[in-house]
Design goal:
Radius of gyration: 18 Å
Number of helices: 9
CATH topology: Rossmann fold
Helix content: 40-55%
CATH architecture: 3-Layer(aba) Sandwich
Shape: globular
Order of helices and strands: EHEHEHEHEHEHEHEHHE
Amino acid sequence: MHSYKTALITGASSGLGIVFAKRLAARGVNLIISARRTDRLEALAASLRDDHQVEVQVITADLSAADGVAKLIKAVGKAEVDMLVNNAGLGQIAEFATEDVAEINAQLQVNMVALTQLTREFIGPMLKRNRGAVVNLASTAAFQPVPNMAVYAASKAYVLSFTEALWGEVRGSNVKVLALSPGGTATEFFDVAGGRLAAGKLDTPEHVVDTAMAALENGNRRASVVVGRANAVMAFATRLVSRSAVIKLAAKIMKPNGK
């Protein structure tokens, strides 16, 4: 981890993004942090500079906008990004027929399109330098369809498949690629998404990020890592029971507010 010089973290104004920034800054990695909320980014940047004496660039960007990725890439400029953390993500917990179309499009844009475009932008130079890492945030929702989160789960299934395929392509180089799949985590996600986890315990953001760090530092032997033993067992178990049974169980776990 100490070999990385500059990391770009999206969705860095809250939750996992903040913890990624703190963990990397503590290792002496300079940062480019991006999100929509400038005030939070500036506060985080000031804290990281004071605590760890690293360089921190703040870029305000809305990746749900059609030109959001292009603006972010332009702002990054010629900075040599050798670690990319595609942490930004959107979700909505609701019956699909009631979801706002703009919210659906925003989820697709952030979770899939922006993640793919940013990965494409920065992995090429990493491969030329034969050094770097890409961490893409998937989810335990990626392992099965999830009623009441149909779009979100499908988008995370894309992230998982895309990232695992990319891991297969870069094997043999010194570029690491990891799909990180946490379960329910104690962040702002459920408040923003408009629902709740009806069963199970929320993990801590620190444990999720430390799991990713450990996977990279241990040689990135696996294309993806599921955070937490119980979550890993459940993800594997989806292969052993019928698809309909898995979907019925998932419907009981994720509930919109008021239900």
